[in-house]
Design goal:
Elements: H1 15-19, H2 29-59, H3 67-103, H4 118-123, H5 131-144
Helix pairs in contact: 2-3
């Protein structure tokens, strides 16, 4: 698996293959294309979810005489809308990450300029801070509030 990535197109690479790439290959063209593809798929998935939500809300607008049933339906709608709102915010981060790939800045910490790391980017493709910088930021927020 060590050198499989050299012959495969970026869209066919597995997370494990990207993780197995040598450190000196960090954010090479294949990795950039791999993460771009991953982000584009995530973006498409969210757009599909948003369409399904709109469809579900239209279908569920029947009049229900029982107050308990009506409350359950309203709670389900509220939960789905909160989820979509979270996804909307994530969509902005995805678009920013794609722009960072296009600019060649993707994969490097905004604060320190150090590599974020492939493992962290696989877990959170929209990460803009290294793990250490993120921990420092969260500690400051915990101590001093937002």
């Amino acid at each position: 698996m060590a050198n499989n990535w050299k012959t495969k197109p970026a869209e066919e690479l597995l997370d494990a293959e990207v993780l197995a790439m040598p450190e000196e290959e960090y954010m090479n063209d294949k990795q950039m294309a791999f993460f771009r593809h991953k982000l584009v798929l995530l973006k498409q998935d969210m757009h599909n979810n948003a369409g399904e939500t709109a469809e579900n809300l239209r279908e569920d607008t029947v009049v229900v005489p029982d107050p308990a049933d009506r409350a359950t339906i309203e709670e389900e709608h509220a939960l789905e809308l909160r989820t979509r709102d979270r996804e909307r915010k994530l969509l902005k981060k995805i678009e920013q990450s794609i722009a960072r790939i296009d600019a060649g800045d993707y994969g490097y910490c905004d604060e320190t300029g150090e590599p974020i790391g492939v493992g962290r980017l696989l877990a959170r493709p929209t990460a803009t801070l290294s793990l250490e910088a993120q921990q420092r930021r969260e500690l400051k927020q915990k101590m001093f509030g937002d």
